[in-house]
Design brief:
The protein has 117 residues and is of the alpha+beta class. The chain has a single domain, classed as GTP Cyclohydrolase I, domain 2, CATH 3.30.1130. It has four helices and five strands. The chain has a five-stranded mixed β-sheet. Helix 3 runs antiparallel to helix 4. The protein is elongated and about 50 Å long.
Length: 117
């Protein structure tokens, strides 16, 4: 299986459990890997036969910007569900980085995989 990826996708959203986090948007950074068979796209050089990563990113950006989850776990699973269900992706790996969430740590977040390659 081939992998199409989005790296370093920065999105502002309401995320967190503390009162100040419910009032102030924070940046989450997404790295997304998506399994997709690109063979027909490579043969035809036609975008209709591949996963349109621009369409995926626009959808994910709109969803995340409009969300207000308490936990990064919930947000990440919802993103995975959208990608798998709405874009017919059999496997996805998402790294969500909530930079600055822990003093002294440059990165903090979650990595999930859903589906089968």
């Amino acid at each position: 299986m081939d992998i199409i990826f989005l790296g370093g996708l920065e999105i502002e959203t309401i995320i967190g459990i503390y009162d100040w986090e419910r009032q102030t948007k924070q940046t989450v950074i997404l790295d997304i890997e998506m399994a997709y068979d690109i063979q027909k796209a490579a043969e035809t050089d036609d975008i209709q036969h591949t996963l349109d990563y621009k369409a995926v990113s626009k959808h994910i950006i709109a969803f995340v910007e409009g969300s207000s989850f308490f936990l990064v776990e919930k947000l990440t699973v919802e993103i995975a569900n959208i990608i798998r269900n709405e874009f017919n992706v059999p496997w996805v790996k998402i790294t969500l980085n909530k930079k600055g969430a822990i003093r002294g740590a440059s990165d903090v977040g979650i990595v999930i995989e859903r589906g089968e390659k």
